[in-house]
User: Fold these one by one.
Assistant:
Number 1:
Amino acid sequence: MKKVLCALVVVLSFVSVSFAAPELTLIIASNATDLTNPYSYGLDKFKEVAEQVSGGKIQVTVHKGTLGENESELVEKLTMGAADLVVSSPGFMTAIGVPEIDIFSLEYLFDSFAHWEKCVDGDFGEAMRKIVLDKTYNQFRIMGYWSSSVRDVYAKRAVKSPADLKGMSIRTQSSQVQQAFFQGCGAIPTTVAWGELYQALQQGVVDGAENDYTNLTLKEHHKTSNGKYVSETHHDFTTRLFLMNGDKYDRLTDEQKSWINQAAAASTAEERAITYRMFGESKQKAINDGAVITEFSEIDIPAFKAIAKPIQDDFAKRNNMTAQLEMVRAAE
């Protein structure tokens, strides 16, 4: 009888531990619904590491596009407490009083993935973290710098120099500095919703667009009449922010912060690794599907940089960001 009771106590203790509520639950999200998107791998890695290093004391729920496919929705949920960590482009912060963040939108700011990593993982990245925390009154804390690869021009004809863009309507992002760059090239920056871009390219509403190989091939833009020619301008090594509410982070215990920091670092490394791997895979897919590629070595990069540099200098001067711009240039 004693043995039976002891065994019962052990079983009940195990059940009690197994079903004990975690001390911290987190909801993390991106706007990407495609499970092969690098964001998805990054979110999964965060969940894996956070739950592992905490011994199950942290429980993570992952949402891949299911909390909203627009980044603005995710950011709103982060501020309201309906999400704890989200992936977003930096641009939304310009509308909420952080114009300095648009430094990430400057064309030809970074020369390579290695240059980008050296900057965001060094003094420049730390300076931007502090600016974001201070200007948003601790509302947004950057937990990691994620990549959305490098953006190129794809259009109805090959683009080797700025002159080739003259008169072409190019779907661009909404950033003023990015639109200024394409205007400087003689193009006509045009706004088209991402979900409508395939049709706009196919029907000739726009002459071209710009994005990275992975995103343009996932949407099959390279199969349209005005997206067939992909020119490796490499004008934007993109930055995406893995964000957490700063006030919530500060309320955590030191142990909980350590767990989250470890998970954020691991997820950032995973997301970048997948992004870099998919660059080559997506380029090959575009070639296999009949896209015509103009290689980076064939592009007149100095001519494009000559247009980009004054825009960089002007932005830095207007936003008191000269020191940060010099950090980036010194790291080349």
Number 2:
Amino acid sequence: MLKAIGSRKELTNIVYFCYISDIIDSSEVSELKNITHHISTTRFQHCLNVSYYSYVICKKMHLNARSAARAGLLHDLFYYNRKEYNNAKTKGQISHSLFHAMTAAENAAKLVDINDLERDIIEKHMWPVTHKMPKYKESYVICFVDKYCAVLEFLFTKFSKKAPADANA
């Protein structure tokens, strides 16, 4: 089953899936299932969460939900360990926040044709840390949804552990 954290919907049964079906099972995206992200989830699950919730918001706002769904799925398409990158960083080297966004955009462009909107979403999803402001409303949606999902993923894992059953119940 393909689900976003916090959602009850099976994502393969809705229009959203049509927008991402050509990329979700690619080896490049599937590889993200093997990478831990935000302590408690995988980079794949995080990208899926950002993709789906950005799609929902953009659809309600009558924005480009298709590009939001696709760029959301690809926004963290990088494979290096960010902690190792930060530890090996030399003076003058760009931050992980900017580097991973640029790397993800390059990887996404190699995987599929991305339009200017999708490129802007991926490259600027770390705003305001990246300083360059997004050009599109959809890019702002992804910026906020990305942060929201990081918190959601952490809280979901923390509070989803079942309490031990009461022996007297």
Number 3:
Amino acid sequence: MKNRVFMYLFIFTALVVVFQFVNSKNIIEDYDKKLTTYMEDNVQLKDSIQVMSDNQVEDIYTFRFDTNEDAMVYWENKGFRISEFVPFIEDELINLNVYDTEDHPLVPYASMTGEKMRIDQIRMLNHKWIITSFTDGTYWGEMLLEYTIEDRQNLTFRVIESTLYPR
């Protein structure tokens, strides 16, 4: 009788072990299948991100002074150091935000909120043009400016075109 109990326990234990083994194997295979699918999807997504990044990087460097060799050479030939030239132009534009009159010296639109119009973003396009954005906190717009420097000191800006976005 004792031998039969041990035999039944052994058979029951063997069946439980086989069941656990088969169940664990199925679970591991399922996880492996999911992991493989996720890894394939990840590779596809990385490829699409790389394609998007390449296009965006190309767009970022289009119409920029610091990637336009001809524009930089133009000012270097006039005796300017580019590393000092760009901050000088940007500082001069930002300094125009400090004004005592009611209207901004460059922005062709008056503020409609009582706040002063201010230039907030600047992008130098080449050796002649700058695009800027301006805002009074509620309304905003953009301007295309022409800049000239005479006698290495006299910096002038002229608004070529501007737009104010509707609210």
Number 4:
Amino acid sequence: MRNAFFIILRSTYNSIIILMKSLAGKSAIVTGAGTGIGFEICKQLVIHGCDVILNDLDKKVADEAAEKLTGNKGKCVPVAGDSSDMKVIQSFVSEAVSEFGKLDIAVANAGITSFGDFFTFQLDRFQQLLDVNLKGTFFLTQHAANQMKKQGGGGSVVMTSSVTGHQAVKNLSAYGMSKAAIEMLAKALVIDLSPLKINVNCVAPGATVTERTLLEEEDYPGTWAKLIPMGRACYPIDMANAVMFLASEEARQITGQTIVVDGGWTATSPGPQ
């Protein structure tokens, strides 16, 4: 038994080393990365030696986030701007090529959550939701894939979806629709991107403790720990770990898929009382 344990331990350690090596020297774009899940994705990428373009709508937030990540193996360059603006999207790719010489990974993480009653949901809010969640994701992927095509050698695209794209949640009909659409986009792009050796997948976060969710509810971790089968809320590192895997060489044969990271919530789906 002891020998079997050490064999498993050594195998796990070797897998981690392989993952670290497969990301070292690559370059990436991560949108919506000033705080929360996006920031943690950037952090894990640069720790493992990946050079990253870190995007946030707010320049100060982007600059401060990038500053926090200095001193790691990878380089982090902040690029502020609206991730649904075509000129800004183009700047992500051009900046990555200018700074790092290539683009290997694109993480379309930027998104907005818009709560609202279906019967009174307003057009301006609906349009903003579609612009950020869908337009931004679609065209970042398009521009990134064109650059990867130009380079040759393949690449990885990871999109951030949500459990609300799988389970209905009150007052999130528009948001859930946008997230389900992102997962369909990943499936559809298997046809276009697979011949280029570009894999495309989604990560669907469950209830995750971030700066934003803590503002919404002070005891957010405690509330959701009671509702999630695994007994705790999710944290940004849980999402970042899934993204790291999907962006690595170890996931080359995984494409068009969604990894739901929710501690089992979608299996039971209880809501807060």
